[in-house]
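Margin note from the TA: students keep mixing up input and output lines. Inputs are the sequences; the output is the structure of the whole complex. Example:
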Amino acid sequence: MTNSSIIRISNLSKKYGSKEVLRVTEAAVRRGYITGIIGPSGAGKSTLLRILNMLEPPSKGEVFYYGRKVPAAKADVLALRRKMTMVFQKSVLLEMSVYDNLAYGLRARKLPRAEIEKRVNTILETIGLSGQSKQRANTLSGGEAQRLAFARAVVLQPEILFLDEPTANLDPANVELLERLLVQLNKDCGTTVLVVTHNLFQAQRLAHETIFFYQGELVEAGATEQIFTAPRCQQTDAFVRGRMIY
Amino acid sequence: MIEAVRQAFSLLFPLDSSLTHIILLTLYVSGSAVALAALIGVPAGTWLGLQAAVKVRWLQRIIYTLMGLPPVVGGLFVYMLLSRRGILGPLELLFTPTAMIIAQLLLTLPIVMGLTSVAVRTKGKEAVDTLLSLGAEQRLILWTIVKESRYGILGAIIAGFGRAVAEVGAVIMVGGNIEGQTRVMTTAIVLEVRKGEFAFAMALGIILLLISFAINAGLYRLQAGGRDD
Ligand SMILES: Nc1ncnc2c1ncn2[C@@H]1O[C@H](COP(=O)(O)OP(=O)(O)OP(=O)(O)O)[C@@H](O)[C@H]1O
Ligand SMILES: [Mg+2]
């Protein structure tokens, strides 16, 4: 492995029952990069993110973080977990206020109160929910909820951020806002981002590198430019040109 | 019916002392049983609700079955445990309020545990995944899931309490309906009906309902106000 890869995957396989839904022989995520993950529905993209976020164990194979195996000790696992976070495809907001949703992960990390308040208020401002900090999260509109889920992850200042369709429910202005935030986060804090998206334009706008999945298999990975303009595989070519039938 | 209500009121003001004892004992027995059931059943039900459904399907089925355990069967079981030749015979608990609490605990625990597990399972794995992803450790996750399921859990406790104050079969068997000692509302009603005192029995029934209503109103407020952000 090279120093620049923050996550490395080796001979990974995931089965549900006898059905193998994911198979990755070898892949690496570069540190400080935004990596796009594309592929048809059911290709295993969410499954991959869930495994990388350590929410599910792989059936076979291994994932290395920072060049090391997942530690055995519980405390070390928690520490590693806290370096990364995910925005889910179907996000679950807690039945608390907007503010408390944002503060939850920071409180779990036992940050000082003043620091929590500062960070939460800043992010509230950024995503335009300042006026609604006391509102109960389950009363937010679809788009507001999605922005909150995004902010709840970003406020943790993770080193690795997994995003599963983060802008699927948003209006164009908010898509722009979130993409801008993401790029800024990546530039200013060096956050490594893995983003699953069905929006191929979004992948091209955001991602330095792109990975294409098809039927559980990593078909092709490379610089975004290359994937979209000069794909090596026929399936990739068909998909990025919107000619894939599935 | 009107006569019954009048009698209920004339009984309440001033409170007849033996009736006061019956009411207080009812609250003590059913309240203790439900408190214990909550203490055990909420954590156990939370644990159960977080297990993969296939892994605990037998346990879950058994608990669902026990939720419908006939009070007389539960009472019989406790009777046999506590009777002189039973395992717990030496404790000499038969025909005491403690025996009644044990019997009602047996009846309410499956309800509290079963309904708690349903409430937690409804919140589901997705909520747990979210908390894990936010960096919460195991204990915080459990606590948060309990708070997130609070409406369902309070519902479980309310249902448990309803079962406890309403049942007669178990308390009459292990308590014996001894006046001034183990007589509660339901067993008193049974007795009055047997004596042909229907009006008085009805009055007792109304009082029981009123008590139940007051307690449930209290629990409901706890539920609505239990936002605890
Ligand atoms: N818990 C599970 N049990 C059984 N099958 C599952 C489970 N989770 C996912 N799958 C299956 O695994 C496959 C991959 O699912 P995954 O959610 O990773 O797809 P995806 O690429 O994210 O699709 P989409 O773009 O629609 O979100 C799907 O066929 C799905 O039905
Ligand atoms: Mg998905």
